[in-house]
């Protein structure tokens, strides 16, 4: 199964079914992915025998109506698009000069269903940021301990009667993460299995009551990147600079 075939499944999982309800007409996310793929293939530049450089900064332009529908999904859509851009580049042995960013833009000159992609190469450092995605909201994890629970004293508060006031915590030391149950009443699951304490890998799923919590490590543009902050987007999953 190809990358485009996997897209709808991955996105629907990320937004808990909002995909099917939102995208019934107009521009489809798979069409954006196809446009990004074409842009990468078209702009690929052979630098040396073992190095083919492709753009890493993309602006996806679409009609205002399409833009409004796409942005309802929040960061989940951009995360999925960036992940698929990475996978396509890896499958073709392409390399990036810096962290990948994708910005969605409204363009009144385009009609519904149309998409235009602009791209460029931006060299810069990559800053790694761990986050927890909960019901479409994103919570950055600070170094140390982040407590998840139903109580107001928790760092990430769940509106879930199946969660204890201080249910579990995520520990982050700057490079690695762990999840630990805090003696909760109903227990904690990691990727579908009961857990007391375990290492957290990127895209691991913590389940507390009815709540699904996804642990991600995002690559963001570092301080040496000269783009305006409003044009920087998160990158879902791990990324390493080209050698």
Automatic annotation (TrEMBL):
Transmembrane region(s): none
CDD domains in alphabetical order: FHA
InterPro entries in alphabetical order: Cell_Proc_Reg/RNA_Proc (IPR050923), FHA_dom (IPR000253), FhaA_N (IPR022128), FhaA_N_sf (IPR042287), SMAD_FHA_dom_sf (IPR008984)
Keyword tags: Phosphoprotein
SMART domains: FHA
Keyword Phosphoprotein in record: yes
Pfam families: FHA, FhaA_N
Limits of the FHA domain: 146-195
Protein name according to UniProt: DUF2662 domain-containing protein
């Amino acid at each position: 199964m190809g990358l485009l075939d996997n897209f709808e499944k991955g996105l629907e999982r990320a937004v808990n079914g909002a995909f099917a309800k939102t995208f019934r007409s107009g521009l489809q996310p798979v069409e954006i992915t196809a446009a990004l793929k074409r842009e990468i293939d078209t702009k690929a530049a052979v630098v040396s025998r073992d190095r083919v450089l492709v753009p890493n900064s993309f602006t996806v332009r679409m009609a205002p109506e399409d833009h409004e529908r796409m942005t309802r999904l929040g960061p989940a859509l951009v995360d999925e698009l960036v992940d698929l851009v990475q996978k396509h580049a890896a499958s073709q042995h392409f390399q990036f000069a810096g962290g990948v960013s994708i910005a969605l833009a409204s363009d009144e000159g385009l009609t519904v269903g149309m998409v235009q992609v602009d791209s460029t190469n931006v060299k810069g450092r990559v800053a790694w940021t761990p986050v927890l995605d909960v019901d479409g909201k994103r919570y950055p994890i600070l170094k140390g301990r982040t407590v998840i629970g139903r109580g107001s004293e928790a760092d990430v508060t769940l509106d879930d009667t199946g969660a204890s006031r201080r249910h579990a915590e995520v520990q982050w030391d700057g490079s690695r993460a762990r999840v630990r149950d805090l003696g909760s009443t109903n227990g904690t699951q990691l990727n579908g299995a009961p857990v007391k304490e375990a290492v957290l890998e990127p895209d691991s799923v913590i389940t507390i009551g009815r709540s699904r919590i996804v642990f991600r490590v995002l690559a963001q543009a570092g301080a040496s990147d000269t783009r305006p902050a409003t044009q920087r987007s998160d990158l879902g999953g791990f990324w390493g600079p080209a050698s």
